[in-house]
Each structure stands twice: as C-alpha cells, then as structure tokens.
Amino acid sequence: MKIDVSLNQKQAAAFRFLIDSVSTDIVYGGGAGSGKSFLGCAWLIIGSQKYPGTRWLMGRSKLKALEETTLVTFFDVCSKWGIQNEVHYKYNSKKNFIQFVNGSIILLKDLFAYPSDPEFDSLGSLEITGAFIDEASQVTSKAKEIVRSRIRYKLDEFCPSCAAKRDRDLDDNKMWRCKCGNYTRGLTPKILMTCNPSKGWLYSEFYVPWKEDRLSDNKKFVHALVTDNPNIQSSYVDNLNSLTGQSRERLLDGNWEYDDDARSLIEYDAIMDLFSNPVKGGKRFITADIARQGRDKTVIIVWDGFRAEVFIEIEKNKIDTAAEIINNLRFKYKVHTSDIYVDEDGVGGGVVDILGCNGVVNNSSPVFVQGQKENFGNLKSQLYFYLAKYINDRKIVVHCTPTQRDMITQEIEWVRRHNADKDGKFYITPKDEVKANIGRSPDYSDAMAFRMLPELKNFSRWL
Predict the structure, then answer these.
(1) With 0-12 CB in 10 A as exposed, 13-18 as middle and 19+ as buried, what is 164?
(2) Is the model's pTM score more than 0.85?
(3) Can you tell me the distance from the alpha carbon of 150 to that of 288, in angstroms, rounded to the nearest whole number?
C-alpha cells in the first residue's frame, strides 16, 4: 500500500528519529494541538504496512481513554489515507487489537499502575516490534520500562533501509547483509512517547537533559506547539488562547517550567531530592495507612529517624493480617508500641485496638503546638502541612523501589492547599479529589504524613 504522508516540520523531525538506527526513546512533548496523537498513529500505521507480520503497541494510562481519544485519531488517519476498516484492517473491540491484511497487529493496552499488578505482569510474555504511548505523563516510568523491555519481536527480520525480509542466517555478530547492500542487525527498538508538559519523570529524564544539552544519544526530545501545526482548526487555537494561568502556560505555550499550582505546598525540586537527601538515622517509628474494606491498599512504613527505610504493601487485607505484619516489624526493628502510628479511621481502628498503638483520626482536631491551637481545619491537614515543610527543608529521605518512587512522587505533587483563595482554616486537597486526579488513593503519602504526629507532640523539642 502506498501512503501519502504529510507531516509538519516538528512531526517530520520526530519521524526522522523514529526511523534512524540510533534513537530508541523519543519524546514528542509540548502544547496541546501540536499533532502528537497523529504522529504516533501515523508511525504505527506506516510500520505495520512496511513490515508485514509485525506487532506494535498503542498504549495509554487507561484503555477507556485510549478508545475515546487516541483510537479516534487512528481511525481519522486511516480515513485520510484511504485505509478502510474491514478492507485493509479489522478492529476487534472485544480483544482490543487492530489487524491488517498483511498480518501486522496493533495491540491496544492499558498501562495504568494498578496496585494489584505493580510489575505489570499483565503484559506477560508480550513481544512487540515498537510502541507508542500517548499522554505518557499519565503512566509511570516503570510502565515505560516494562513496555520497552518487550520490544524485540522480529527486529532482526527486516532491513531498515529497504524493508526487505531477511533471507539468510545471522553471522557471529548477529548481523546480515541485505540484497540492497546494507549490512545490518535489523530494526532498532523504538518507543515513542507523546505528552503535554508535566513535572514528573518525563521532565527529569528528558526535558531537563535536553535543555541542558546532555541528553544521551539514544534519547530524543522534540518540543512542539500548536503554532507548529498548520492543520489545526482556528477554533481550537481560540480555545487555547482563552486559557489562563498554569493551563495556558502548559497547553498553549508548552512551557515545561510552568509555575506549579499556587496551592502546591511542596517544591518540585524538593520532591526530586526526597529520594537522595543525606539524612541521618534516629529513633525508629512505624506508620501505617490501613485499607478500607479492601478498596485501597495498606501501606506500612518503617522509619529510622526521618529515613523511610522499609515499605510494606498489602492488598485487600483483613485487620488481623495487618496487625500481625506490623507486630512482626515491631519486633524485627525494635520499635516501641508507643512509637507506632496507625490510621484509625474505618477498619484501621481494629488494628489500633489489636496493637494498642497510637491511632490517627484524620478529621479530629489539630494538635496543640506549644500550648497553642494552630489554624488547621483538621489533624490530617496539619500533618500534611508539616510534612510539606519537612520535605521542602530536605529533612526526610525515602528509600524505595522505582515503582514506589513514581507513585510517591505523584501523590506528593498533590499535597496542595484546598480553597487557597479563601480566608479561614487551612485544609489540604480532599482525598476524593486526589483520587479522581491520580486514579487511586494516596496511601503512601498518608502513611508518610503520620510520621509528623510524634514530632508535633514534641514540637518544643525540635523547634
């Protein structure tokens, strides 16, 4: 099939990286309307047609969002290029894949970091030829790494120069000479990630190194704006021009260094330093956020002073199971019962009863500090405001897995003042609002916030 491809200047720059022999991780990120989804869908279609029998992945944080957005763009691109459903390809909505008549397949994948599958075992023994992750800022870096590790399917079967299929064995260097004269190992594994500006792993792994001219050769970053897309509708641009504040900076201006939400309590650089701060150990504590009726996840942290050293996660546990695990940790790390702080709301109260430890009632009154009642709406808000202060002051360090780091970073970014434009008591963003934005309960940050309670009780000692 002959396809007439028309790309704007920024899309063409990214596409050159998608077909070279060096680049493996390509980020196309900037403002809204810069043709991000079009680029990804176009690349998958061209690759599927050029290399028969290959397998490609189109992913997004949630499959439903992919079907409602990215997949719609895919169908639009196909229609523009004269590629017809039931003629040139078939879309299987039940099994979530697109199969072309030449045997190539595009798999539609949900890449959300579900607590029940932290290692993305759902991807199993998947083998693919290339991957496109749309709105990559909404997935974790662990998800990206797992997807990238699966890019190995038929890579050595095709000549990247002329697309001819290999007709001879590989030599000792795992290379072969094509009839076109090219001596090659085959296709280079590629993953394309598209996104709007965000303060997450894409910012630290791609944008900052690109800005500082130290991005490794295999990684590429293309900054694109709506003004780079000559095919965008004027009404779309008008809508972007009507935005204000942070949304305008991100979506219209494509500014990766936007001023984070004025409600944010924790500086972004402090969040990045949270995992490497030089903090000495001290008295040991255990804090725990207990899952409510199996809907969330129980997170238990063992602290050495302000060093979060051990994270235990439990899915859909019974209260006696959580109590037993905390008790075993108490003996192992020699933690006094009086130095254990557990969420007492809901089923957590049962754990407090079993252990005889300190309970944390989130909606209770704030703790008096030096004999004074502080202007917080409840205890949880007070604990989070102090947690923010400690993180900003680089007094806390967290040692955890890369997946946990992504999740903690995401939760900590949502430590914000609620109704900051109103006078009165200080509150943090309600949990329901946080859950709606990150797709899960902020269990890690809740357990971390509980570490502030013993400090508040002894405030005069450390002020």
Answers:
(1) middle
(2) no
(3) 35
Q: For residues 181 and 203, is the Cβ–Cβ distance under 8 A?
A: no
* Distance between CA atoms of residues 116 and 430, nearest Å: 24
- Architecture of the domain spanning 268-462: 2-Layer Sandwich (3.30)
Task: Please give the CATH number for the structural domain made up of 9-152+189-252.
Answer: 3.40.50.300
Domain ranges of the chain: 9-152+189-252, 268-462
**With the C-alpha atoms ordered 432, 433, 436, 437, is the resulting torsion angle positive or negative?**
negative
Task: Single out the residue of 113, 137, 122 nearest to residue 57, CA to CA.
Answer: 122
Please report, in tens digits, the pLDDT of each residue of the chain (463 residues total).
Answer: 667 778 889 999 999 999 999 999 999 988 888 899 999 999 999 999 999 999 999 999 999 999 999 999 999 999 999 999 999 999 999 999 999 999 999 999 999 888 778 788 888 789 999 999 999 988 888 899 999 999 999 999 999 999 999 988 999 999 999 999 899 999 999 999 999 988 778 888 899 899 999 999 999 999 998 888 887 888 778 778 877 777 788 888 888 877 655 568 898 889 989 999 999 999 999 999 988 654 578 999 999 999 999 999 987 667 888 999 999 999 999 999 999 999 988 778 899 999 999 999 988 988 887 777 778 889 999 999 999 999 999 999 999 998 898 889 989 988 988 875 555 688 898 888 888 777 788 999 999 999 999 998 775 433 3
Identical topology for domains 9-152+189-252 and 268-462: no
- C-alpha dihedral sign at 251, 246, 411, 316: negative
